[in-house]
Amino acid sequence: MGQMHEAKVPDIGNFHDIPVIELLVKVGDAVKADQGLVTLESDKATMEVPAPLAGVVRELKVKLGDRISEGGVVAVIEASDASLLPPGPDVALANHGFAQHQAPPRESGGRGAERGGRRPDEGLIAQGTQGSQAPSPSPQPSPGGRGGQQPAPASATNPVAAPASGRQPDIECRLVVLGAGPGGYTAAFRAADLGLDTVLIERYPSLGGVCLNVGCIPSKALLHAAAVIDEAAHAKDYGIDFGTPKIGLDALRAYKDKVVGQLTKGLAGMAKQRKVRVVTGAAKFVSPHELEIATHEGSKLLRFEQCIIAAGSQALKLPGFPWDDPRVMDSTDALTLADIPNKLLVVGGGIIGLEMATVYRALGSEVTVVELMDQLMPGADVDLVKPLADRLKKQGVAVHLKTKVAKVEAGAQGLSARFEGENLPATTLFDRVLVAVGRAPNGGKLDANKAGVHVSERGFIPVDRQMRSNVPHIFAIGDLIGNPMLAHKATHEGKLAAEVAAGEKREWVARVIPSVAYTDPEIAWVGVTESEAKAKGLKVGVGKFPWAASGRAIGIGRTEGFTKLVFDEESHRVIGAGIVGVHAGDLIAELALAIEMGCEAGDIGHTIHPHPTLSESVAMAAEVYEGTITDLYIPKKAGK
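and the corresponding structure tokens:
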């Protein structure tokens, strides 16, 4: 009998208690190294736990619906003889969405660079940041990046690179960036600023990628329109009646497109100013230094010295849905606003699903949300989500938890849905169905194996703390290196990759990455969540200030929110925060900075915040923790 090995959940960042939504293997199955064993679901993406080695599954430790965290065992695998060979140089990186970058002691940038050794709270913070300890970075190239480095040797996980084509290139450059989303265009612009001859390849006619063209920006424009509709309706409470809104769908669509166009035009202008060459088309690798680009003018061969892959992700398409019917939508389809359906089914109660539910409800749709797990927005604290859930219920949005959409069938009268679970909807016939269950990385669509780049079975590309793949001159950033799949994470990674490509000594040093749901009310959190802290047995204290005691919140009639801070009990430093309420996404940045700077409760509470504002709630939450609050009556803590 071979050796038995436990397959464990790698470090999955700020997420704790992640539900198991799919078993990909059964006892007795033969599995390959890196093959997915189970699928987990966070707030914005589904993720697989990979097999650590090849062998046979002898025991499954989890079942559907179980919740699991970092270090949890999902299966026991009996190793095959081949799997006992030493792992390749990138095996320790983990992947499938879990490879992230724990901040080392800071070496450059910000006040953190001046502090030696570990901060008192660094061990706590590390458990709330994105990921596992990455291996040491690849050797630095010589200035300018021309170090003569060769691709890493082939291993059990590294594919053998294809030879150079030998063809005359149509385009040559020092650095090519593959994908012009927030991470890609940031990388290209920063590289150009550092003097690198840069080419930026984008499949869309406009720069900005999914985020700007069919994601973050258009969705927020529509969410603004939804907020105006709700605010006008709320005005009745203080004697101002605007009447029933009349929705001009063409005008609303034009407004959304104008917002997108203004930003894409600005990006095109900045690319021109920086002399970044933009090529529109879809690119795939030919060899370690060549890309084939399919453009409207035909195929073009590009030869590069260095490459940054920023190809992003795409919406997951569940089986059992008639995807050839235009009434079945992903998030991109939903943003086109083809019409306002009378009855809309939203499959998935994560951030994307709830944002689009917010938009369509405000426009007049009867919305039903179905979520497989036992709470909306998995990954956020339950108390943060409750005010949103309560408001959705009051607005008539039907939310069904612990429920699965087993199948959808297209018919002349609409889309018929069949449900399974504990809380089945009464309505089964819908005009449109929006599937918003997460996103899948595009790493597997680039023929990166021809460049020798390791890509996981699910399309993720493992990288080190300098954003290098296993091939030293090829970097990867953004959605396709792992969760969280957020534009602001990709932006920082893009800048870092460009600086390393230019020969600067940089590493990933972000300690926390904030998450925001632009629902109504908004939900935002950063660092260690309260539920995560309790589950891990961390010694923490919580300061929570209800907006019912905020003069500003009372004045605008939005008292359902609150601000919550999580502190390390030994150092009194803030290590996490959550805010629910209007403008929570704007307020959370202060807490992200406070965690980065190692602020204590007194630093926050003694910082004078303007009155009356919602930002006061941050200082008051710190005062609640310290027992010095005067805007509430709370018995003092011992020793305070």
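(Above: one complete record from the training split.) The chain has 14 helices and 30 strands.
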